[in-house]
Amino acid sequence: MRPHAIVWAFALTLPLWCPIYAVMLHVPFQLTSSRAFRTLRHAGLAVAVSSCLAVQALFPSAPSAIAAPVIAQAAPETPAETPAELEKRRSELLDSLFERLARAENEQNAELLESAVWQIWLRSGSDTIDVLMQQTIKAMNDERLDAALAILDSIVELQPDYVEGWNKRATVLYIRQQYDASLRDINKVLELEPRHFGALSGLGLISKAQGKGKAALDAYRRAISIHPFLDGVSRLIRELEIEVEGQAL
What we know:
- This protein is an all-alpha fold.
- It has a domain at about 1-125.
- It contains 13 helices and no strands.
- The protein has helices at about 5-25, 35-40, 45-60, 65-75, 85-100, 105-120, 125-140, 145-160, 165-175, 180-190, 195-210, 215-225, 235-245.
- α1 (about 5-25) packs across α3.
- The protein starts with a helix and ends with a helix.
- The model is unreliable at about 1-75 (pLDDT under 50).
């Protein structure tokens, strides 16, 4: 992306990534790679760059920072997008990001793409749900798991198609060692978003904890097929291959 296009994309996405970055600063243990979050904790620029990647996916011919104000003044005001149009755009953006993630050439690029995906997943489309999610993450960070679980129960009831509501609740249930309940929520996550590498990683963790090595191996392999640089998963796969497949030799 050219420098002026990056500036334009940064400005365009400013209202999107600022509140999400504030949320991600408080993300605790997850059923997924934490490396992207550690990156965001130490470098807010990663969020801005990943936002630029997202904009570039939607607007490959973005105008320069100089021309944009002129175009904005000359163009007639367009009506706001409908919820269906917004969902279509969101879906197309995720498709583009996942395609890039699967082809990522190095860990750094993969982390930026991963953080862009998490930004989209964390956005519920509802101000109320977003506030509740911030409260959830704070409660989890403070190890107030009962409070976090109560809020998440409300989130999934109010907006059952919000993937991260189910994923965060699966995380809390996993921490409480309520594995069967966590698995039910993971299955719901994967029903809504089969590419959710975080949920697949969680499925691997729980399967391994329950002594189901082959199921854990299958889950990790599915996760890494979506996100080739998912933190720590390659090592877990190698260990399980020896444990599960090595025993059969």
